[in-house]
Design brief:
The structure is a homodimer. Helix content of chain A is 32%, strand content 26%. Chain A is an alpha+beta fold. A 6-stranded mixed β-sheet of chain A has the order 1-7-8-9-10-4, with helices on both faces. In chain A, strands 14-13-12-15-11-16 form a 6-stranded mixed β-sheet. In chain A, strands 2-3-5-6 form a 4-stranded mixed β-sheet, sandwiched between helices.
């Protein structure tokens, strides 16, 4: 298939009409300089919004408030803070998340319900809300038409690099852009972290159509990454579409809709891959590709079991092509399996043939696992279902980073 | 309830009529001295046998062979090797496991089917079967009436201490003994390890009654421990009962049967705890006690999610009383949960009250987590179901030990 979009610079401020900015508040003690609040805003018109939130039953207050605000037909801004997750904070947490939306609304001349709220950082700590309200007042002045990188930096916690991507495509002879920023699953800071992702587009698209497209994109990207298997209380992906590109509104099942979907998939997958690559203490980026599974669900369970196995991940860290641990994980993940049918490949080199050691020299497998990126392909030979998970090794550095303050 | 049994010395050779011994074979390259084969034998009479095997679908050859041999009404010996798991070895693996039983039978004058076979060590490597057959011929001469510790040592892989326990109880005025040895879930050696446990008793008990009692004991002990969440291809628990104590055969629902069950539970729980304490790189032994859950299944899922969370375990290693990670794990484990009802205690000290930080000073919680053993109690306040899991921290040393050869 020909590529129908091109990657461009500019992140979330590349689509028409979106501005972003950041400011220093000092939410987390000891944070002397780093900007820790960000604002994303559609300056000219309101937007339709789509979102996916954590399925964790312990949901942070901003998640609960944003879920409510998503009922609004058109929103216009997202306010975000790092340094405090506002999770396990009870009724006062809900009040503080609302006050963030109220303060942002006042600063921009919007209703509270037109503002979505996100937080990332410590769990179980009360927000310094008054200080934050003062910072929010200053945020509109910080908004810039090239402010994407500043917002991407302000939402970072233990991330080591800012995560931005943008693409351009043509729909109805109109230039349409999609931009995104994200922060990763770093959890050292110090209680819990969060995957946050904000996507903007100037495409004209209905709320339902945007939600449908976002759900597909998230399923194929953020839902397929794992660093340590712990799901956060705050995970949020929000997409805003303001329609300024001037295309005819996208409808499902049109060719244009497929082009938009592909471009959106690319944006989310790139950001998801960056999150994995920037995982704490990560030294390897590994694609686990299961094929030939009896069912889609079996393919998913098998790929996730291998990608999350502590022992498999430790072996990768040690550059050890330890396929016995992969066979073991396949055996305990409750899927249809015939041991004597399983083949396993390391970057295409066969390691396991019919469930037993292949004749490939051990050193050849070691060469693959010594690389920073490689793919493990597992063929179950039981059907035609497949699934991919993007994962990492488990390093001593990961443990050190997660030992606490 | 009064204690109706007493702990004694002697392990698996303390019950009447059982002997054990070990020998050096050199199954694993580089192993110059350590005994790596063991034999357990009921010298005077045959025994009924009960067993539980790994539920991993990738089953080692000795597991498949022992499952078959368990159909025999009465068996008499267990032959075990360390250094090679005989897993993922195809048809020749099955043949080799059978040859171990045949050779043992010939050496002791038994039928092949009266011998159970166990292996632990590397996955995917062919057994040096001829060398092993030669060693098996010598094993009967090594049998001793106090050979339990030798057998316990011969089955060790990365274990740092031998695991033995025995108890004595009185049934029908007869002295009944139960002894056990086990090896732990060390997985560095180098592909995969195994939990193996062998229990002997001179109690008179039927095969079905012994299986029933063993299943209950395993469910409350070995099924409740976790070091890294990876289930092995070789896990095996076998109990042999030869009836030499002379009690009337135990029947279910008799008082004597309960006394025997309690003693057996104690033996398996002690061995299970030793396995956890000897887990690779372990610095903490943690009991996770969930109570007040809506259902038994919810209590189990909650306890297992907390006990297996990479982030929770890293925090314990760092002596960080990070209850946010526990709340997070409770949130993602698919149980009935009301965040605002959850209380969490560290050795009885309240850390979380109604889903939020308690007023307990942080330093007091730090004092608990600094200990080598502590208990996390989680009260869901939704019902009356409870569950306990015995687990460990996750240390940098664990990762180092599991990086490969």
């Amino acid at each position: 298939m020909s590529v129908l979009f091109a990657e461009i610079c500019g992140g979330i401020t590349s689509p028409k009409g979106f501005v972003a900015g950041s400011a220093f508040c000092g939410i987390k003690k000891g944070n002397k300089k780093k900007h820790d609040m960000a604002l994303i805003y559609s300056r000219e018109v309101s937007t339709v919004a789509a979102a996916t939130f954590t399925t964790n039953k312990v949901k942070a207050a901003p998640v609960r408030v944003s879920v409510e605000h998503m009922r609004t037909p058109r929103v216009r801004a997202i306010v975000v803070n790092s340094g405090n997750a506002n999770a396990c904070t009870g009724l006062s947490g809900i009040e503080h998340a609302k006050r963030m939306a109220v303060a942002t609304g006042e600063a921009l001349g919007l209703k509270e319900r037109q503002v979505l709220v996100c937080s990332t950082g410590r769990i179980g700590v009360e927000m310094p809300i008054k200080k934050m309200e003062r910072t929010i007042k200053k945020l509109p002045k910080a908004l810039q038409s090239d402010g994407s990188l500043k917002a991407a930096k302000a939402i970072m916690t233990s991330d080591t690099f800012a995560k931005e991507v943008a693409v351009e495509l043509v729909i109805d002879d109109k230039t349409v852009r999609i931009g995104g920023i994200a922060k990763g699953a770093g959890m050292i800071d110090p209680n819990m972290a969060t995957m946050l992702c904000f996507i903007t587009t100037d495409a004209a698209i209905g709320k339902k159509e945007l939600q449908h497209a976002l759900s597909i994109a998230v399923e194929q990207s953020f839902n397929r990454i794992t660093v340590d298997g712990d799901m956060s209380t705050n995970d949020t992906v929000i997409a805003l579409a303001n329609g300024l590109a001037g295309n005819k509104p996208l409808k499902a099942s049109q060719a244009n809709s497929h082009i938009f979907q592909n471009a959106l998939n690319y944006v989310t997958l790139q950001l998801a891959r960056m999150i994995v690559e920037d995982g704490e203490g990560v030294t390897k980026f590994v694609e686990v590709h299961v094929q030939g599974a009896a069912t889609y669900n079996d393919a998913r369970k098998a790929a996730e079991a291998v990608a999350k196995s502590t022992l498999v991940k430790c072996a990768w860290f040690g550059c050890d092509p330890n396929w016995g641990r992969i066979m073991d994980a396949l055996g305990y993940c409750s899927i249809k399996l015939r041991e004597e049918m399983v083949d396993i490949f390391y970057d295409g080199v066969i390691a396991v043939k019919n469930g037993m050691a292949s004749k490939t020299p051990f050193s050849k497998l070691q060469d693959v696992v010594a690389k920073e990126k490689f793919t493990i392909t597992i063929d179950m030979h039981l059907g035609s279902s497949e699934y991919i998970v993007y994962t990492t090794d488990l390093s001593t550095r990961y443990v050190e980073l997660n030992m606490g303050e």
